[in-house]
Amino acid sequence: MYRYDEFDERFVRERVAQFRDQVARRLDGSITEDEFKPLRLKNGVYLQLHAYMLRIAIPYGTLSSKQLRQLALIGERYDRGYGHFTTRQNLQFNWPKLRDVPEILDLLADVEMHCIQTSGNCIRNVTADHFAGVAQDEIEDPRPTAELIRQWSSLHPEFDYLPRKFKIAVTGAEHDRAVIKAHDIGLRLRRHPDTHEVSYEVSVGGGLGRTPMIGKVVRDYLPKDDLLAFLEAIMRVYNLEGRRDNKYKARVKILVHEIGVEEFRRRVEEEFARLDGPSVNADPAEVARIAAYFKAPDYEALPAISRVLEATKAANPAFARWVEVNTIPHKAPGYAALTISLKPVGEAPGDATSDQMRLVADLAEQYSQAEIRVTHAQNLVLPYVRQRDLFAIWQRLGEAGLASANIGLITDIISCPGLDYCALATARSIPIAQAIQHRFADDNRQKAIGELNIKISGCINACGHHHVGHIGILGLEKRGIESYQITLGGDATENAAIGEILGPGLAAEDVPDAIERIVNVYLSERAEGESFIENVRRIGLAPFKAAFQEVAHAVA
Amino acid sequence: MPLLDRNGTKVDAWTRSEGSGIDNLSQALVPWEALTEALQHKTRDQRIGVVIPNNIRIAELKLVLRQLSLIAVSFPAYSDGRGFSLAKLIRNHGFTGTLRASGPLIADQFAYALACGFDEIELPEASAARQPVEQWLKAVGQISHGYQRGYGDSHNILDQRRTARAAGRLAAS
Question: 20 to 30 A from A60, CA-CA: which of A157, A307, A310, B19?
Fold first, then answer.
């Protein structure tokens, strides 16, 4: 993975010193609270419901064992012994003291980490496919691109006071695991059909929140060398022309929507043609320097299927099920990419204790090149595991409550922190997730249902990605009572789609019943081998709506 | 209003004119709406500057760029970053005169303003009173080099790496 050179190191240290100075100037009254707010936000410090929250950047979700251990230490020393992994592959601490923040930043800098631009109206921490470098369907590793963007976007002089926050995601695979179509900019590495050159498909204007939109392609094949100049052109058009009169209409998706994608494309291409690309772009040697850090490890020559693994699976059905659900085939024969579920039934989705973090760090060191990935679905990945080591890993994860076999299944729920922590939330999210998990806790039942993504947001800002959940749940407040709106048919992949609302909002206690009715429609209507989302697409919303109405009427 | 540049506070040599009347002013700063008329009355030894809103189109502005000695870009609020992009566009279109950021900026934006092509900052009294010039001069150097190329720093990190690479190659050969 990427390692800081002397320049990166100095940059991050200087940023910590700068933040200390900003805090001091706030305290002596040189800057007002209003002026200080964006400065602290751009360093990840939020004022939340009960306390300050610190959001730590995990660029493109890649962590080393050393870094994860440091996060465990910070959680223990400055928080309550746990942290929360987010849908943007970051980590949040919910209970740090403001006065401890500079010290925490020093500890992060010690392991080449920071909180730069994890909030505020700037280009946020860039995200990527969590199976980068190991997925079989990958055309090119997206991480060098993501790292280049991380550097380029850090304290960008022109784009640090944008109309609104700005999120970029990158994937290099056919199957989109980075939800690129729900980002302000989504980049997809792909081969040009004629030249076979790897280039970028550039989408702009995706986003969730109160006005969900799917990103639109503005360039089919952008040469890799032109990336930074093209990004500069997009950002300049947005910075100048994005709306600033209404924060709810300030995202780039609204600009693209209002002037149309054709006109937006024309303005970007005009600016791109006019600016001096060579003076902006990183030279190929710099891109190669970054890419070298992401070279594949020296894999052992192994048979495609491990006999040890097959034997242990045969002897232990629970282990076999876990392997089947939580691993994906790997580029290298005899290896697997393993997802560790942070969704044990009844726990807050995405939370990990310091002890659990240390265990995962140890396992990564022993079995996975000391590297961990964080997924946007709030789980962790060991990307380079020999198949024959899976059993030992499973046993140790089991002792720590981390061996749930539910990746991609109905209990692998994405959820924002909701009203339990968040100042913006209008309803609770975590208890809803827990109630659904309890309802569907039975392993055989989960397996029978198969792939089904439930995503829950506790307010219209949609941090829980509910719009792109197969089943989405949005918590609202109506006349002082929490009310949950259910959507169906959303999709976060290359078939990106926004879910449709099924009917009136439900009370919290009725949500599991409604989900069960929806699932039952699928189970009775599905064709052979048809997944939930395929079934919804084929039979349409009507049968699901009818089943949903029964719950809605019963409680009305 | 207080004025500063990368060397500290400075005296404003420009006189603001409410309309297009620039009779005896050697350096007249006029509003955008009055610019056409002011330019018509301009004598050979008079210099003209203009105060522009931050939503102006570069297509309009570029027609008069060569006749201007100073452009003051308005920042209605520190949080409104349009002025940074506008400055960059103005410079990209070849303007070599003085570029001024005018509005309630904060010291932390000084480095950004200079990087985008501004020469000086004109502050409202209240902002300047809270943030003494020493804070601006300190803030401007807090991050010694950024990553971006094309923002006035020939020692940006990407170019320093390039130089180091070139030196490495020379040493090896």
Answer: A157
Query: Mean pLDDT, to the nearest integer, of A512-521?
Result: 97
The residue assigned the tokens 């949500």 is A511
Helix axes A317-326, A390-399, angle to 10 degrees: 100
What rounded mean pLDDT belongs to chain A?
A: 96
Q: Are A143 and A128 in contact (CB under 8 A)?
A: yes
Instruction: Tell me which residue has tokens 């291409």.
Output: A269
Shortest alpha-carbon distance between residue A31 and chain B (Å): 7
The helix or strand, by DSSP H or E, that contains position A216, with its residue range, turns out to be strand A216-223
pLDDT at residue number A556: 57
Per-residue pLDDT tens digits for A368-404? 999 999 999 999 999 999 999 999 999 999 999 999 9
- What is the model's pLDDT at position A441? 95
Residue in B closest to A155 by C-alpha = B146
* Mean pLDDT in residue range B63-76: 97
* pLDDT at residue B169, rounded to an integer: 61
Instruction: Say how many residues make up chain A.
Output: 556
Quick check: B88 and A236 CB within 8 A? Answer: yes
Query: Could you give the ipTM of this predicted complex?
Result: 0.96
| Amino acid identity, position B132 | P
Q: What is the largest CA-CA distance in chain A?
A: 69
How many CB pairs lie under 8 A apart between chains A and B? 121
pLDDT bracket for residue B110 (50, 70, 90): very high
Q: What's the CA angle centered on A69, arms A63 and A70, to 5 degrees?
A: 90
**pLDDT higher than threshold 60 for residue B173:** no
Nearest CA in chain B to A274: B92
- Helix, strand, coil share of chain B (percent; to 5): 40, 20, 45
Question: Which residues in B lie closer than 8 A to residue A275 (C-beta atoms)?
Answer: 92
Does this model's pTM top 0.90? yes
What is the average per-residue pLDDT within A319-338? 97
Tell me how close the Cα of A357 comes to any Cα of chain B, in angstroms: 32
Burial classification of residue A232, based on how many CB atoms lie within 10 Å of its CB (0-12 exposed, 13-18 middle, 19 or more buried):
buried
Residue A94 makes CB contacts below 8 A (sequence gap 6+) with A48, A50, A51, A53, A79, A80, A84, A417, A421
Residues of B in contact with A285 (CB under 8 A): 162, 165
Helix (H, G, I), strand (E, B) or coil at A32: coil
Q: What burial letters (b/e) apply to A478-496, b meaning 16+ CB within 10 Å?
A: eeeebbbbbbbbbbbbeeb
